[in-house]
Amino acid sequence: MSTDVGMSSCCISGQLHNHATPSGTVQTIGDLSTYVAEPSSKDHSKTLIFLVDIFGYEFPNTRLLADEYAKAGFYVLVPDILQGDPLPISFLQNVEPPLKDQEQAGLIDKAKNTAVVGATLGTWLPKHREAVTLPIVEKFVDDVKKTTTGKIGTIGFCFGGRYSIIMAHGKVDAAYACHPSLVAIPGDFDPVTKPLSLAVGTKDSLLSDDQNNQIKEILEKKSDVPTKLVKYEDQIHGFALRGDWSSDKDKKAQDDALQQGIDWFNQYLNTLV
Fold first, then answer.
1. How many CB atoms lie within 10 A of CB 270?
2. Which of 24, 62, 269 is nearest to 158 (CA)?
3. Least CB-packed of 4, 182, 214, 269 within 10 Å?
4. Quick one: pLDDT at residue 115?
5. Which neighbouring-strand residues pair with 244?
6. What backbone torsions phi and psi does residue 230 show, to the nearest 5 degrees?
7. Cis peptide before 98 (omega within 30 of 0)
8. How confident is the model at residue 7 (pLDDT cuts 50, 70, 90)?
9. Where are the domains of the chain?
10. CA 115, CA 100: separation in Å to the nearest integer?
11. What's residue 74's pLDDT?
12. Can you give the residue ranges of the Dienelactone hydrolase domain (predicted)?
């Protein structure tokens, strides 16, 4: 039996990063508006498709992270898989603060957060259910395949993390998922046939340590498929994209998760492999 791991207030928590301005361009690829970050070499042999969280493809953190992968030599595409319907960035702070602030929050604040989450996600999620989102993601991957002779990987965050895992069922050459939400255990992991890396936090309210151990056990049985699951101590949901940079530990976790992805894709999107 599959265990469906849901979505909570953690999904809309975190910090807005405004330390820089995204340097890519917006283009139409297939039929989706897409943020494009190119490496300085203009090499398109290693393409990364970002599958976004509920804040969408215009979220500054997402675009800045795409720029970091481009600096590492990848051709990065961030399609608008939410088709112009992201949740507003204003939810970042009023739903769930960083872990240190959570621990100091009172019952009234926590109850308010829970109510806001229920009201917001209760109407948003049905519009972006699997039957709607998966065909959008699959078509975009197919459209990209028509324009490249190189290898393609997906990297997904939170809401998009699950779709990156599904792309590792054979649709792309390699995948990486950071703190995925709404996953089914074992249903989303049994069909994995392509290299898959995962970054999860030990304080993630959506994936408990027991659930992460279940996932790891499933993946480790795939002796013919490279897999990796890395646990980040004391990190909450969203840490790899929306971490609190006022904390050295949280900033390091986000940096390490970035490096985990770069190393993974350098290995498995290498055209010589």
1. 13
2. 62
3. 4
4. 54
5. none
6. -115, 125
7. no
8. very low
9. 3-88+125-268
10. 21
11. 97
12. 33-269
**Tens-place pLDDT, residues 125-153:** 999 999 999 999 999 999 999 998 899 99
Q: In what order do the strands lie in the sheet with 75-79?
A: 25-29, 32-37, 75-79, 46-51, 151-157, 174-178, 196-201, 227-232
Three-class secondary structure of residue 54 per DSSP: coil
Cα–Cα distances in angstroms (integers) from residue 192 to residues 26, 87, 165, in the given order: 32, 30, 7
Backbone angles phi, psi at 18, to 5 degrees: -125, 30
Pairing of the two strands 46-51 and 25-29 = unpaired
Contact by Cβ (8 Å): 182, 162? yes
The CA–CA distances, whole Å, from 195 to 55, 113, 186, 223, 273 equal 27, 37, 17, 11, 12
- Model pLDDT, residue 122: 80
CA distances from 95 to 80, 113, 144, 161, 208 (A): 24, 5, 36, 21, 20
Read off the tokens for 257: 């998760």
The pTM score is 0.88
* The two three-digit tokens of residue 3, written as one number: 């265990």
Beta-carbon count within 10 A of 49 CB: 27
CATH architecture of 3-88+125-268: 3-Layer(aba) Sandwich (3.40)
**Amino acid letter, 20:** A
Kindly tell me the sign of the dihedral angle through the C-alpha atoms of 13, 14, 15, 17: negative
Pick from 135, 182, 157: which is nearest to 48 by CA? 157
Q: Is 124 exposed, middle or buried (0-12, 13-18, 19+ CB in 10 A)?
A: middle
